[in-house]
TrEMBL record:
<protein>
    <recommendedName>
        <fullName>tRNA threonylcarbamoyladenosine biosynthesis protein TsaE</fullName>
    </recommendedName>
</protein>
<dbReference type="Pfam" id="PF02367">
    <property type="entry name" value="TsaE"/>
</dbReference>
<keyword id="KW-0819">tRNA processing</keyword>
<keyword id="KW-0963">Cytoplasm</keyword>
<comment type="similarity">
    <text>Belongs to the TsaE family.</text>
</comment>
<dbReference type="GO" id="GO:0046872">
    <property type="term" value="F:metal ion binding"/>
</dbReference>
<dbReference type="InterPro" id="IPR003442">
    <property type="entry name" value="T6A_TsaE"/>
</dbReference>
<keyword id="KW-0547">Nucleotide-binding</keyword>
<keyword id="KW-0460">Magnesium</keyword>
<dbReference type="GO" id="GO:0005737">
    <property type="term" value="C:cytoplasm"/>
</dbReference>
<dbReference type="GO" id="GO:0002949">
    <property type="term" value="P:tRNA threonylcarbamoyladenosine modification"/>
</dbReference>
<dbReference type="GO" id="GO:0005524">
    <property type="term" value="F:ATP binding"/>
</dbReference>
<keyword id="KW-0067">ATP-binding</keyword>
<dbReference type="GO" id="GO:0016740">
    <property type="term" value="F:transferase activity"/>
</dbReference>
<dbReference type="InterPro" id="IPR027417">
    <property type="entry name" value="P-loop_NTPase"/>
</dbReference>
<keyword id="KW-0808">Transferase</keyword>
<keyword id="KW-0479">Metal-binding</keyword>
Length: 136
């Protein structure tokens, strides 16, 4: 599936479309170059899920936990600063990835071997006109 994001003004419409088409998956790995809008899109998705918390990139914390409007936890990961795979083992990644709650992962290529088989890979591309394309 492809979703086009023409501007920040329609990012919430794109997030709604993503949510309507994400199926039963729980772990979503977001791929894209630096600055393509991975964090911004995840933030819009979380807002559409009713998250009232401040949503920021977990670059230094590795994982942020948010609470959806229905009370369920949502986990937002950023593996950009992972230096050794042991850091991921030490944080107990399996509890998150296989716990049945939504997990949104940035920079998953750094932990590719640990991703669940049923992970949904989401690719965000910047187009020449500055718009973004989300494919999954």
């Amino acid at each position: 599936m492809k979703i086009k994001i023409d501007s920040l003004e329609n990012i919430h419409a794109a997030a709604k479309e993503f949510l309507a088409n994400m199926g039963d998956g729980k772990v979503f790995a977001f791929y894209g170059k630096m600055g393509t809008g991975k964090t911004t899109f995840i933030k819009a998705i979380c807002e559409e899920l009713g998250v009232d918390d401040v949503i920021t990139s977990p670059t230094f914390a590795i994982v942020n936990e948010y609470t959806a409007g229905n009370g369920d936890p949502i986990y937002h990961f950023d593996f950009y600063r992972i230096k050794k795979i042991d850091e991921v083992y030490d944080m107990g990644y399996e509890d998150y990835f296989y716990g049945g709650n939504l997990c949104f992962l940035e920079w998953p290529e750094l932990i590719e071997d640990l991703l669940p088989e049923d992970v949904t890979r989401v690719h965000i591309h910047t187009e020449e006109d500055g718009s973004r394309t989300v494919e999954f």
